[in-house]
């Protein structure tokens, strides 16, 4: 092996005799955040009944370590080895077989999966106390297809010709947190209202009671959410809705009748007008009597980008979209802009596919349901770490970039008496950010219970 030193090529001899070296040093930050927000303790308390021996592994720690492993980039239980082999940083970590048995016990014991969700909710409440609660709650619902490469329970063919699962997810747009997930077979319907209601129920259980009662909640979905079951559920629960609406013949006929001066400029999130995009409300032109009272229909037109393929619903070179909502804002541009930000959910799902969601490793469906919950724990560990102790670009970085810059950094761990010091390479561009993150975490008050 050859490297460059002082402008000269130098031959390097590779040996395995180093001491005090650790990799993935930054990932220790994730475990400490889990402890700081009370996630580890909450899991331990709710899963205490699974500990068979005094010296056995704490079930809460096992689940936490699995979440840290996924946040660190692992894909299956065996990847826990990258954490286990560095006990100086992560403490005593369970073996692969012990971790598997823990997942299996949670899956097969009634009430324990709900206990994991309850621990997640308790940690979320503590995070909001530390970082500040959002002023409004926007729940984005969306589904994604996950390929299964082998025969697994309830895996099935999907509408795109693939095979696997079709989980339904909910994320909180204001904080980027994962609020709920529902694992489904690959052939599950996209617009199944019962599934949307079930996953939203789980999301609402993640919100502290005081916030559920006091803050306005908006549920956003694409056209898969335009079902009477979902919007009626939102109305009964005093939540606003904003869902994609099908371009039916009546809607298209109403669009054609809109005069040129009936369109107004679409808006960007900062309130400025978009150069491409116009909106118009056609509530009075379409029969909405079957939908909840005060429902509104808003359409948007834009010129497709060069090379885009037009569809039969496009007219005069415009592409149209419609949304159904019961929000009462006077500016329709604000409503359409707010709905367009539902696209953020695609970013959240992409992040989770890089954090364990892309593979459901177990054959049994119940175990994969537990895996989905741990994926959401890993998602939130990253989000909470970024919000509490990171700044600038790192506070919004996707998992892959965060791992490259911070989590997977190598270091030397030195002990002196009862003290230890983690030495980072001083020329690493993000070393100061990691040092500052650990220091900032120390200043945060730990969860009390």
> Radius of gyration from the CA trace?
25 Å
The total of helices stands at: 16
Quick check: average pLDDT?
92
Separation of termini? Answer: 52 Å
Low-confidence stretches: none
Task: Give the CA-based shape.
Answer: globular
Largest sheet: 9 strands, mixed
Strands, count: 17
Describe the structure.
- The structure is a single chain.
- The chain contains 16 helices and 17 strands.
- The protein starts with a strand and ends in a 6-residue tail after the last helix.
- α2 (39-46) packs across α3.
- The chain has helices spanning 28-36, 39-46, 59-71, 81-84, 87-90, 96-108, 112-131, 193-205, 209-214, 228-236, 249-256, 332-340, 344-357, 365-389, 399-407, 431-443; strands at residues 2-5, 8-11, 21-22, 137-143, 146-147, 156-157, 163-165, 168-172, 177-182, 217-221, 240-245, 264-267, 273-281, 296-302, 319-325, 411-416, 419-424.
- The protein is α+β, with helices and mostly antiparallel strands and 449 residues long.
């Amino acid at each position: 092996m050859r490297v460059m030193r002082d402008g000269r090529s130098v031959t390097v001899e590779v040996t395995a005799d180093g001491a005090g070296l650790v990799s993935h040093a930054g990932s220790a930050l994730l475990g400490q955040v889990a402890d700081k927000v009370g996630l580890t303790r909450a899991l331990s308390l709710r899963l205490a009944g699974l500990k068979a021996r005094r010296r056995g592994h704490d079930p809460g720690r096992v689940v936490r370590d699995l979440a840290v492993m996924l946040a660190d980039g692992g894909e299956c239980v065996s990847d826990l080895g990258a954490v286990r082999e560095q006990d100086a940083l992560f403490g005593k970590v369970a073996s692969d077989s012990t971790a598997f048995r823990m997942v299996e016990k949670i899956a097969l014991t009634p009430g324990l999966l709900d206990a994991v969700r309850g621990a997640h909710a308790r940690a979320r409440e503590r995070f909001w106390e530390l970082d500040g609660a959002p002023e409004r709650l926007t729940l984005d619902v969306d589904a994604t297809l996950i390929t299964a490469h082998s025969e697994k329970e309830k895996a099935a063919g999907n509408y795109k010709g693939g095979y696997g699962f079709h989980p339904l997810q909910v994320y909180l747009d204001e904080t980027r947190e994962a609020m709920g997930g529902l694992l489904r077979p690959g052939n599950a319907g996209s617009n199944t209202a019962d599934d949307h209601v079930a996953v939203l129920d789980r999301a609402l259980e993640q919100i502290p009671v005081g916030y559920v009662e006091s803050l306005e909640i908006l549920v956003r979905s694409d056209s898969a959410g335009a079902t009477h079951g979902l919007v009626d559920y939102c109305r009964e629960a005093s939540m606003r809705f904003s869902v994609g609406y099908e371009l039916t013949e009546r809607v298209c006929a109403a669009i054609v009748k809109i005069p040129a001066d009936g369109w107004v400029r679409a808006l960007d999130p900062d309130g400025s007008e978009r150069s491409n995009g116009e909106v118009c409300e056609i509530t009075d032109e379409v029969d909405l009597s079957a939908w909840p009272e005060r429902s509104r229909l808003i359409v948007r037109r834009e010129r497709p980008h060069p090379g885009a393929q037009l569809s039969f619903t496009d007219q005069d070179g415009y592409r149209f979209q419609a949304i159904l909502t019961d929000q009462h804002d006077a500016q329709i541009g604000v409503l359409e802009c707010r709905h367009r930000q539902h696209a953020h959910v695609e970013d959240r799902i992409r992040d989770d596919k890089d954090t364990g969601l892309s593979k459901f490793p177990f054959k049994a469906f119940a175990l994969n349901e537990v895996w989905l919950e741990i994926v959401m724990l890993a998602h939130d560990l990253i989000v909470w770490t970024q919000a509490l102790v990171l700044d600038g670009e790192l506070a919004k970085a996707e998992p892959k970039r965060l791992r490259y810059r911070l989590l997977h950094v190598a270091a030397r761990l030195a002990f002196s008496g009862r003290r230890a010091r983690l030495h980072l390479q001083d020329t690493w561009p993000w070393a100061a950010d990691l040092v500052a993150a650990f220091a900032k975490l120390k200043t945060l008050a730990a969860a009390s219970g």
